[in-house]
């Protein structure tokens, strides 16, 4: 087992349990972790806890063609960002418009056993070189966020972009350690991807700027409901990350950045929402500037809050805190 593949996980989607067993055996022997099933038996949202690095999906899974299967997977806010290898019969190769399907590679059936392992390794090698995903959450990083923001601006269509910051995260890390802090970030990732997937569908996007900063995008019509739901679910689960005594008193004793002892409240969310609904946005830098102003407003409130920019709708600035 090599160091590079020891922790790498492969998701196999196939209708045939026998083929899943064969493929799992090949990849496990090569040092990969494997989870397998079909679209009806695997709870895809649960994979966020231990996300795969690559998907190997056979045409015919849940009765779907390569085109339909690819669309289904790529429309998922989380799994849609993972590399996808499809298994397809050789007689079907010329029937598929490979320029229009969003796959990273294909393997013809019947396949050679060693080909499966080689193709997965090559796919992951390309992923390492090209994908800027956050190593903890596997969400798209700054390059993808910039690309997505630019694309939405240039499209001219209405969009909303939200910057999310976890308040009092540093004091929590100082108190409980980075391991538990990472667990908080993974939970925040799970909440974001689930809610955006539920409420924004294919128009949704979630990215991880770094640390406790996230970005998500949707159509403006959905952004309020997304923010409200994310806040509700985050506030519901976050007390469980604190020890009983800290949870009961509602704060932790820690040291601030200047070395002074201070009481820090439980973690909450500050969300700044920028939208082109009321005024045009021509550059990603404009989004960052507006969001920076709104985050200051959000952080002035106690507890979790989202602040949405509505300037341009009236002659005076109107920032709405919900």
The dominant shape is globular
Give the integer mean of the pLDDT values.
88
Q: Let me know the number of strands.
A: 13
Q: State the distance separating the first and last CA atoms.
A: 52 Å
Order of helices and strands: EHEEHEEHHEHHEEHHEEEHEE
* Proportion in β-strands: 15-25%
Quickly count the helices.
9
Summing up helix and strand content along with how strands pair, one would put the structural category as: alpha/beta
Rounded radius of gyration (Å): 22 Å
Helix percent reads 25-40%
Poorly predicted spans: 1-5, 313-322
* Biggest sheet overview: 6 strands, mixed
Across the major sheet, the strand order is 7-8-6-11-12-13
The gist of it:
The chain has 322 residues and is α/β, with parallel strands linked by helices.
What keyword list fits this structure?
single chain; 322 residues; alpha/beta; 6-stranded mixed sheet; 5-stranded parallel sheet; 9 helices; 13 strands; disordered N terminus
Structure description:
By secondary structure, this protein is of the alpha/beta class. The chain has nine helices and 13 strands. The protein has a six-stranded mixed β-sheet with strand order 7-8-6-11-12-13, with helices on both faces. The radius of gyration is 22 Å and the shape is globular. Mean pLDDT is about 90; it is low at about 1-5 and about 315-320. The N and C termini lie far apart (about 50 Å). It has helices spanning about 15-30, 65-75, 115-130, 140-155, 170-175, 180-200, 220-235, 245-250, 285-300; strands spanning about 10-15, 35, 55-60, 85-90, 105-110, 160-165, 205-210, 215-220, 250-255, 260-265, 270-275, 305-310, 320.
């Amino acid at each position: 087992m090599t160091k590079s593949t020891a922790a790498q996980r492969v998701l196999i989607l196939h209708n045939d349990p026998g083929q899943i067993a064969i493929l799992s055996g090949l990849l496990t022997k090569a040092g990969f972790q494997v989870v397998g099933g079909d679209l009806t038996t695997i709870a895809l949202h649960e994979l966020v806890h231990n996300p795969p690095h690559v998907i190997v999906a056979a045409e015919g899974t849940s009765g779907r063609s390569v085109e339909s299967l690819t669309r289904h997977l790529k429309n998922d806010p989380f799994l849609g960002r993972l590399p996808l290898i499809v298994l397809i019969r050789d007689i079907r190769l010329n029937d598929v418009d490979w320029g229009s399907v969003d796959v990273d590679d294909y393997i013809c059936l019947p396949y050679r056993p060693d080909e499966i392992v080689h193709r997965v390794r090559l796919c992951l090698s390309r992923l390492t070189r090209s994908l800027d995903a956050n190593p903890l959450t596997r969400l798209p990083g700054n390059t993808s966020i910039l690309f997505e923001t630019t694309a939405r601006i240039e499209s001219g269509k209405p969009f909303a972009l939200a910057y999310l910051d976890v308040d009092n995260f540093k004091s929590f890390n100082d108190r409980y350690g980075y391991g538990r802090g990472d667990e908080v970030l993974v939970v925040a990732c799970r909440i974001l991807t689930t809610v955006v997937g539920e409420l924004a569908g294919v128009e949704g996007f979630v990215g991880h700027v770094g640390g406790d900063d996230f970005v998500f995008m949707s159509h403006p019509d959905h952004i309020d409901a997304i923010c409200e739901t994310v806040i509700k679910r985050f506030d519901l689960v976050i007390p469980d990350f604190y020890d009983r005594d800290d949870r009961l008193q509602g704060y932790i004793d820690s040291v601030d950045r200047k070395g002074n002892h201070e009481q820090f409240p439980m973690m909450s969310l500050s969300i700044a929402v920028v939208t082109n609904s009321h005024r045009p946005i021509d550059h990603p830098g404009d989004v960052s500037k507006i969001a920076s102003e709104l985050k200051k407003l959000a952080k002035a409130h106690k507890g979790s809050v989202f602040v949405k920019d509505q300037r341009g709708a009236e002659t005076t600035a109107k920032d709405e805190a919900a």
